[in-house]
Design goal:
The structure is a homohexamer of 329-residue chains. Chain A is an alpha+beta fold and 329 residues long. Chain A folds into two domains: 7-251, Aminopeptidase (3-Layer(aba) Sandwich), CATH 3.40.630.10; 255-328, RNA polymerase II/Efflux pump adaptor protein, barrel-sandwich hybrid domain (OB fold (Dihydrolipoamide Acetyltransferase, E2P)), CATH 2.40.50.100. Chain A contains six helices and 19 strands. The first copy, chain A, has helices at residues 63-74, 92-97, 121-136, 164-177, 194-200, 218-234, and strands at residues 7-8, 16-25, 35-45, 50-54, 82-87, 139-142, 150-152, 155-159, 181-185, 204-209, 248-251, 258-260, 265-269, 276-277, 282-287, 297-300, 305-311, 315-316, 321-328. In chain A, the strands form two sheets. Chain A has a 15-stranded mixed beta sheet that branches. In chain A, strands 16-15-13-18 form a four-stranded antiparallel beta sheet, with no helix packed on it. In chain A, helix 1 (63-74) crosses helix 6 and helix 4 crosses helix 6 (218-234). Chain A is globular and about 65 Å long. Chains in contact: A-B, A-C, A-D, A-F, B-C, B-E, B-F, C-D, C-E, D-E, D-F, E-F. The B-E interface holds B 58, 60, 99-101, 106, 108, 111, 146-150, 189, 191-192, 258, 260, 262, 311, 313, 317-321 and E 2, 5, 9, 21, 23, 25-37, 118. Chains A, B, C, D, E, F: This is N-alpha-acetyl diaminobutyric acid deacetylase DoeB.
C-alpha cells in the first residue's frame, strides 16, 4: 500500500508542546491545490506511555472537542510523563460543518476503518490513524456524544473483548474516567469502527456517550474535562491521583434494548433519560401530522431497565431508533 | 384588499368536532394546481368564548404541536362551552421541514404580520389569521419553544401592554397556564409579530417558551399539555378548575439581558439553564477551532439573575445570541 | 413608472422577417453584466392587424413552443397581411430549465401581471408584455398545456367576459383554432393572469391546454401547428381559409369540477382522459406507501361529465388537484 | 463475505399473510441510528413454488408498484399454493423521491447487482436480493416502465438465453402475462442487471415496460394488475386459469433500433408510439432554442418497424436516446 | 419609516480609533436570534470633514477590502483631522461568500438603494447607509473591481452630474486618487445605485474599477492603497501631500461602448485589456462547444478606443457583456 | 476487464477529417437512456506518427480547449502526415460546467488513471484513454492552465523520467512548443495522473500551465495555438518548420517551492507572477476578515527564484497553496 498522503506539520516525537496540523492534500473545484488541515497537538516529556485522545469522530458531538481543545491549550510538558497526542476533531470537515458525516464525501469516519490512502478524504483520515497514530498509542480515548439526532445519559464505555486482560484494562480505564454511568458494550456489528481498529491492535480503548442533541452543557462538558484528566492520571501520564466519582454500570445485553419506529410522526416522549422503565411501558408516541384527529402510534420498552438513549429531533421517521433501554447492574 | 385565497374545508361555526384543513392554493413546479394543507380542528358547543390555540408558528418548536395534536384528538364537544379552534402547526411547511422558517419562501411567520393575500405563502397564512381567525377569538394561546438553536427554561409569558386591563387579563392567563417560570416581556421590536397583531385587536394573548433544541421531553410536553388545559379552564371553555402549579416570575428588563458573540468558535457552556448568575460571570467560552493552542473568548453576564436562555448548537457564529439572563422577582 | 429595462434587438415596426431578442439586463453572480435573452420573431407586411403569439408562459409546456419556433422559421412576409409577433418562450429562463416557474426567482409568469420594471426578472417580463407588446396586438394567442404535473384533453379556450362582443370574438377564434375540444372558462381567481391583462385591454384572447406531462406528442404538436395557422387565417393575417375541424364544447361550471387530495400516496387512476364519468364514480385511488396492506383513499367525481384533466405524476401529495371533470354540451 | 445488514421484520417462511419491512440500518446526518424501511409482504400457503414480485427497481416507474401494493393488500393465503413475496418498491428511497436512482447514493439499482453488504445503500439492497430473496424464488416478475424520461408501448419481455429450456419457460410466462405487446430482448450490455442475476441462477424471469413518463394510466395500471395475476396463475400459485389476451410480438434485433441525439433542442415528435415507421422516416426533430429562425435537426428511423419507445421530456440533450424502433413479427 | 434595525457597536462620534460592528439582527433557521456582523472602524480626531470609505459593495471585488482592512488597522487618530469611517465589506454576507450578491437574499447591494428597514438583509444595509452613514459624510469613496466575471483596466471614476460644482469636486478627487486610468461615466440606468444615493445628497463621490476576475494583484492592491491615501490627503483629512501619478482619461460616450453576446460558447479573446482597437475589429470569438468543426461567432468593436473591460470567465453565455471599449482623450 | 462502454461515433483509422463524439452511456434521473457526448476530431493522412492532443482534463482551464477547437476546425488532411486525434475537452461534463472536477461524480480526471470501465463517468473516461487512445499515440500533448483557483506564468513542461531517452524526447518537444517559460517537473505524487499513464507507456508527453483564473487572454491563447502547431511540426506531422521562440527554463526542485496557508483570510499579494523573489520575502498576506484591526499573517518565500504560481481567489482558506517559487536556470 502506498504511503499516506497526510503529513503532520509538527514532529510527533520531539519533547515539548507542539501545535500543528495533519495536512491532507485535497484538490477540489474551489482550491486546485488545497488541503484539509486537521488541528493536532503533541505534548511530550521523555519516555513513558502514549495516550491518543480524539474527539469529533462524528462532527456534531461536542463534549470531546471542548475537553480536548481545552486540554491541548493548557497541558504543559512538565505535567506529563510520556506523550499525549490530541486530535480534538478527527473528522475535521464534519466538525466544521456541524454534521455527523463529512460534507466532502458524506463519510461516517467511524465506519471507514481501516481506510485507504487512495480513497475519499474520510478514508484517508481513517488510514492515517490506522497506520500511523494508532500504532504509536498505548491507550486510546475517543469521545462520542449523541450528535444532533440522539441523546444519551452520560457514560464512558468499553467493549466486551476476547482478550480478557485487554478487556479488564479497558474497563479499569472506564472506571477511572468517572462518568455518572459506565457501559459494558457488546457490539453486534463492529465492522469499520475506530474502536475495532484500536482493539485489534491490543490497545486499551475507552469511548463515551456524554449527552447529545448537537449541543453540550456545563455539566456534560465538565464530565468530559474531568474524565480525560482522570484517564491520563490512571495511565500514569498526568501527575496526580484519579479524582474518584461514583458511577452506575449499565449493560446492553441484546437487540431488545432498541425500539425502532415503523411510522413517521411527531414524537411525544413519555419517559425522560435516566428514568426507570418496565417492559411494555410506552416510552413515546408518534402523532400522525397529516391531519388532526388521527391515533398516535405507541413505542414500548422491550425489557426492564432505565432509558439510556432516545431519538432527539421532534419529528421521527420510519426506521429511526426511538429509544434504548440500558439494564442496570 | 382582495379576499384570502385560503379556505377552510370545514365549517368553523357549527357545533361538534370537525377535523379539516386550511387549504392554500400553491402553484409550483412539482404541482401546478397544488395546495398547502394546514390541519385544523374546531370543537364547538353552543355559545361561549372562542379560544384560538396555535403551535408551529416556528416549525422546529415541538411542545405546542404535541399538546395541540393531542388536544384536537381527545377533546369532545360536550367538554366544552363555546369554541376551541386548534391549528397545531401554523407554518405547516416549516413544521413538516422541521425548520424555523418556511422552506417555500424562507418566511418567518412571526415577523410576517399582518401579511397579505397577494404575497408569499407565509404572508398569506399571516393574512388569514389576521383577517379571519384572530377576529373570531377571545383568547389566544400561541406556543413557542427555543427551536433548534435556542434553549429556554420553561415559561409562559405575556407582554407589558398600554391597556392595563388587557395586560392584567393576559398575566392572569399566564398564571393559570402554570409553567415553572412565568415571564413579563417588554418587546423592543414588535413589528410583524403575531403577538402584536392579536394584542392590537384587544385579545388576551399568552405565549410560551418551553424548552428548545428542536426536541421535546416528557417533562416539557407535560407542561404544555397541562398548560393548555389550564388556560381553557381559566377561560371558562373547558370544564373544571385550573390545576394550580407554582411558578417563578421573571423579567427581561433591558438589552443587558442579552449577550451576543462577536467571534465564532466551539461553545463551552460554564453555566446551565436555571442557574443563578452574577454580573461579570463568564457564562460560556468560544474556543477558536482553526488550530489548537489559541485562547478562548469569554462571554459574560451583564446583570444578576438566572440563566434563562442559551445558544443551543455546539458551534457559535459571530452575531449569535449566546445567553439571556432573566431577572427573578 | 420608469421605462422597462427590456429592449428588443430588432425593429418591431419594419416590414419583413426579423429574428432577434428581448434583452433583459440581469446582473448576477455568474455574470455581472449579463442579460436574459428572450427569442423573438417579427413578421410584417404592410398594414393590417397584429397577432401576438406566445408559448412558454409556463416553462414545461411544449406544444406552443414547438408550433411557434416552427412558425417563426417558416412564415414568409409575403404570406402575411399586417404583423405577427412571435415569442415562443415568454418565461425563457423557465423554458430553458424545463420548469413551470423561473429558476431565477421562482416566478409564475401567469400570476405576475401587470408586473413591474423594478421587480424580479419574471415581473419585468410581465411588465414588458403589459406596457409594450399587448398594446400593439389585436389578437392574442397564448399556448398552454398541462406541464409536468397535469394532463389535459386537448382544447382551445376563452373566458366568459362581461363584454359580450369581445367574448363572442374570442369564442369565434377558439372555434377557428379547431382543437378536439373547446372550453368555455369561468375564471374564479383571475388575479395576475396574462389572460386578464389582455382581456382588460379589450383584446381577442385565445388560450389552450393541449396535453401535458412535460412532453408533446405528434398528435398534440399537430393540433398546435394547425391551430395557430387557423387563428391567423381567421384573423385575416395569414392567407387562405381556416382548415375546419370538429370540436366538442366543454364547460367548467363550478368548483365541483375539481377533486383535491387530502392525503398523499401512490396514485392509481381508474378513469382515463376523455372518458365519461358520473357523479360519485371513483376516478382514482391513492395507496399509502409507508407499508403494504393499508387501505387506499378514493377520489370521486363530484358531477357528471368527462375526465378533462388529471394529476400526472405517479405520486400525489395532500393538496394536489387529482382530477377535473368537464361538462360536455 | 459478511452477512447482509438487512433484516426482514417478518418471517419469510411461515404460513399466512405478513406485512413487514426489510430494515436496512442507515446512519446519516439526520438520523444517527436510522434505517431504510422497505415494505414487504409475504403470502404463504403450504408447499408450492415461490414467486418473487418486484416493482420500483427504478423509482419513477409506477405500474408495478400500483399492481403490487394492490395485490399485497388483497391476496389471501387461501387463494395461494406455495408462496408470494412482494416488494412493491425495491429501491424504496428512489421510489419515495420519485426518481430513477436513489437520492441517497444516486445508485441505479438495476446496474448494482450482485451488490455488496459493505457498499452503498443501493448496493446493500442488491446484495440482499442476490443472496437472500432470489435463491428462494422459482419465478421472478420485475415491473418496469419508462420512468420520467422514456415512454414505451406496453409490453412484457424476456431475454434470449443460452439455456433454451429456461428461455422457453420465460417466454411462456411472458405470453401468460398478456400485455398488448411482448418483446424478445437481446441484451447487449447486461452487466449489473437484476435480470442477469436472476437468469444466472436459472430462474424464470419476466420483466415489463408498461408505459412511462413518470405516470400511470387506468389502462396501463390495468395491464399490470391483470398481468401479475396471470403470471401467478400460470405458475400454479394462484387459483384459476390465465385470462388470455392477444399480444403482438416484437424484436429488438440490433443497435439500429436506437436513434440517439447529437444535438440539444426542443423535441417535436412526428410519429407516435405504436405507429409503423420505415427506415429513413423522420421520427422527430429538435428545434434549436437559442434563437428563432434556426433549422431543426431531424432524427430518422434506421430500420422498418413500429415506434416502440421515445424520449419523453419536451427538451432533448445531446446523447439522449430519442426513439426505439421495434421489429414486429 | 421605522428606525433601522442596525446598530453600531461603537460610538461613531467619539475621538480615537474604534473597531466594531454594524449589528443587523437576522433570525434564521441556523440561528433564531442571530445577527449579521459587519466590521466597521471609526478614526476620529476633532473637527474636520468626514470620509466614508467602503469596499465589498459587491462581494467578489478585492482591491477595496484589502486597502480598507489595511487602512483601518494602521491609521492612527493623530494622523487624521476630522473623521474616517471605514466599512471594508459593505455587503458582508456576499464578501464572506466571495459572491457578487448576498447568499442570504441574492441582493445586489448596488441596486438596492434607498433600501428599507423592513426589507431583506441587503435592503436593510442599504437603508442604514442611506439614512445614517451617508448623511454623516462629506466625501465618499466606494471601491469596485470587476468581480469574478468582468475584468477592467484600473481606473477611478466619477459621474457626469447636473450640479457642475459637485461634478468638478468629484473629478478633482478622481484625479487625486491617481489610478492609471480615470473615467468620466455617464450612467444610463442609475436606479438603485449607492452612487446615485450619495450624489443626490450632494456628496463628493468617487468610485473605482481596479481589475477583476475575483482576485487582486500586488499591482492593483497597490493602486487601491495609494489611491485611498491620496483621496484622504486631497480632502484634508490625512496629513501630507497627494502622491501624484499620471493617469489617462477615458470616456464611455454611448451604448456603442458595449458588445453583448447573442450566443454561448468558449470565449477566445483576440485583444487584451488596454490595447487600442478600431471599430469593426474582432475583439473575441465564441467557439460552439457541442461539437468540433463548427464556426465561431465574432464579437466586434463598435467604435475606436481601447479595450477597457472584458468578460472574464472562459465560457460566455447569450446576453453577457463581452467587451467594453473606452474612448481615450 | 470488460470492454469500455465508450464508443467513438467516427472511424479513428480512416483518412480525411472526421468530427464526431466519444459516446459514453450514462443512465440518470433526467435521461434514463442518456449519454455523455465528448467531442472528438480525427485528421488523418496516410502513414505517419499519431499525436493525441487534449484539453479540458480539468474543466476550468481554457487555453487548451481554445487552441484545440480552433485546430480541429481548421486543420486539413492534406496539411498532415500521419494522424492527429483531438479531444478539446476530455472531462467534458466538467468543461461544460466550468469546474475543475466533474459535476456528475466530482471526479478529478487527472487523478483517475488508469480508470475503470465499471466505475464512475470520470473513471470510464480515464479507462478509455488508458486502453484505447493512449496506445494509438506516439506523442501526447495535454493542455493545462491554473483553473479558477491558481494562476501560473505560462510554461510548457515535461517530467524528469527514469528513461533518459524518453525524457530527452519530451524536453525537446517542450522546447519546440516555445512557451515563454519551460519547466522541468519532478512529480512527488504521480499516482493517478494522465501524465504518468502516458509516460509509463513510453510516450513523448508534453503538458502546460498557460495562465489561470478560469479565463484566457489573447496572449495566452496565442501561446497555446502557436505551441500546438510547433509540437505537430516538431513531430513531423504538420508541414513546416517550428516557429522558434525564446523560453526561460525553470525547475521546481523540492517541496520548498510551495507555500501553504494555515489560516484563512483576505489575500493581499505583495509580489506578482514572474517577479524575482528571495528566500524570506513576504509574498502575500492574509488579513483576518472577522473584524477590523487584526494583524495579517505573512506568507514567505522559502527559496530564491521567481514567483511561478499563485492562489487566485481573493479569499484564502487554511490548507491552500498560496504561492509557488520556480528556480530559474
Amino acid at each position: 500500500m502506498r504511503p499516506s498522503p497526510i503529513a503532520a506539520t509538527v514532529d510527533l516525537e520531539a519533547d515539548g508542546v507542539r501545535h500543528g496540523f495533519l495536512r491532507l492534500p485535497h484538490s477540489r473545484d474551489d482550491s486546485a491545490w488545497g488541503s484539509v488541515m486537521i488541528p493536532l497537538a503533541v505534548i511530550r516529556n521523555g519516555e513513558g506511555p502514549t495516550a491518543l485522545l480524539t474527539g469529533g469522530n462524528h462532527g456534531d458531538e461536542y463534549e470531546g472537542p471542548i475537553a480536548l481543545f481545552d486540554l491541548a491549550r493548557t497541558l504543559r510538558a512538565e505535567d506529563v510523563r510520556g506523550r499525549v497526542i490530541v486530535v480534538p476533531a478527527m473528522n475535521y470537515p464534519a466538525f466544521r460543518a456541524g454534521t455527523r458525516t463529512s460534507p466532502i464525501d458524506r463519510g461516517n469516519l467511524n465506519r471507514a476503518f481501516p481506510g485507504s490512502p487512495d480513497g475519499t478524504v474520510t478514508q484517508k483520515i481513517a488510514d492515517y490513524f490506522q497506520r500511523t497514530l494508532l500504532p504509536m498509542a498505548d491507550i486510546v480515548l475517543d469521545f462520542h456524544s449523541g450528535g444532533r439526532t440522539l441523546d444519551f445519559v452520560p457514560f464512558a464505555a468499553a467493549h466486551v473483548l476476547p482478550d480478557k486482560r485487554q478487556e479488564a484494562a479497558s474497563f479499569a480505564a472506564v472506571a477511572a474516567f468517572g462518568a455518572p454511568f459506565s457501559m459494558r458494550m457488546l457490539e453486534i456489528d463492529a465492522v469499520g469502527m475506530y474502536d475495532t481498529a484500536a482493539e485489534a491492535m491490543g490497545k486499551v480503548f475507552v469511548t463515551t456517550e456524554l449527552g447529545g442533541g448537537g449541543t453540550a452543557t456545563a455539566r456534560t462538558a465538565g464530565i468530559a474535562k474531568r474524565g480525560v484528566a482522570n484517564v491520563l492520571r490512571h495511565a500514569g501520564i498526568l501527575r496526580g491521583a484519579v479524582e474518584a466519582r461514583e458511577t452506575r454500570w449499565l449493560d446492553m445485553p441484546s437487540g431488545d434494548c432498541f425500539t425502532f419506529a415503523e411510522d413517521e410522526g411527531l414524537l411525544e416522549p413519555l419517559v425522560d433519560l435516566g428514568e426507570p422503565v418496565r417492559r411494555g411501558d410506552v416510552l413515546a408516541r408518534a402523532h400522525p401530522v397529516g391531519r388532526t384527529g388521527a391515533e398516535p402510534v405507541a413505542f414500548r420498552a422491550r425489557l426492564d431497565g432505565i432509558l439510556a438513549a432516545r431519538h432527539f429531533p421532534g419529528l421521527v421517521k420510519a426506521g429511526d431508533c426511538v429509544a434504548v433501554v440500558g439494564v442496570a447492574d
